[in-house]
Amino acid sequence: MPSAPDTPRESGAMRLPPGWYAVFESREIRPRRPLAAVRFGLDVVAWRDERGAVVLQEDRCPHRSARLSLGEVREGGIVCPFHAFRFGPDGTCRHIPELGHGADGLRVLTFLTREENGLVWAWWGPRASAEGTSPPWFENIDPRAATHVVRDEWPTHYTRAVENQLDYAHLPYVHRTTIGRFAKEGAPPPQMRLEDDRIHFAPGGGETYIEFRFPNLWQNRISPTFSLTLCFVPVDAERTALILRTHVSSVTARLPIVGRVFLGLSGVLNRIILDQDRRVVLSQRPLDAMRASDEVLVRSDAAIRFFRGWMNDRAWSFERSEAAGEAPTPSA
């Protein structure tokens, strides 16, 4: 995934529903190496503290707006490259060289984070609403399963990428040379459950099903031992990062050579399928599906209609004071 721009941008925070969003793979965040990125339309920096826990903060020193990601991680915090102000995992300024001490009122916007199932999750929304919640996941996936990852970035809004995976009717046409060969044109709609935290449907019946867990996690459960998961990571209003993982828990897949070959071939097929989707999805305008008020939805779009209603009901406009838990003070 491309890193953040060379220079900080003015805040273009996205309007998204509150929730736990998968934002990185765990392996992307390495000890003592700040990672610059864009998430939710904001320049952010991710780093690991002394305990190895992931910290996600706005990539902007509140002193003079330099990028913290250009600094270093040491003494339990991230050090600004401009004047060596050091900020802790909670966002508080712990040390100002010219003062010889920190300043509790000087803070960096800091996200609540969790690290689970090989992913880094960030809470987007008012901090108070995160209490008692946890990142979504799929209970059927064996945590010991062998995995293969395909990553991509699409120049479109997160909503278009999500809706593509909720649209079963496109399979015989977009994917006619791959997985669409098994889909019948004009097939009856699948059994579907539309719930507050998920969209679940079984296009072919049986043990195969597709499920989307709000706000950005999808699974294609192909068999009890074979699943695909896809994270739709909101980069900004015009970019979405995709993390597509193959999970195989069969004994064969764990064999050193056979497993690598199987997972490698699966990754190649997944890349082909993603590229077939990409070609069509990137043609859609407007980029943000929530602005597509003139689109005429039909019966097969029931999941998309539900998704748009869910988004509209919960969309949150970013407020720094709510996201941080308290308003940062502009000076020490």
Describe this structure in words.
It is a single chain. The chain is globular and about 70 Å long. It starts with 18 loop residues before the first strand and ends in an 8-residue tail after the last helix. The protein has 5 helices and 19 strands. It is an alpha+beta fold. A 7-stranded antiparallel β-sheet has the order 13-19-18-17-16-15-14, with helices on one face. The protein has a 5-stranded antiparallel β-sheet with strand order 5-6-7-8-9, with no helix packed on it. The chain has a 4-stranded antiparallel β-sheet with strand order 2-3-4-10, with no helix packed on it. Helix content is 17%, strand content 32%.
The number of helices is 5
DSSP strand count: 19
Chain-averaged pLDDT: 89
Rg estimate, integer Å: 21 Å
Q: Uncertain segments of ≥5 residues (pLDDT<50)?
A: 327-332
**Main β-sheet, in a few words?**
7 strands, antiparallel
Q: Which strand order do you get reading across the main beta sheet?
A: 13-19-18-17-16-15-14
First-residue to last-residue Cα separation:
36 Å
Beta percentage is 25-35%
Assign an overall shape.
globular
Category by helix and strand content: alpha+beta
Please provide the ordered H/E string of secondary-structure elements: EEEEEEEEEEEEEHHEEEEEEHHH
Percent of residues in helices comes to 10-25%
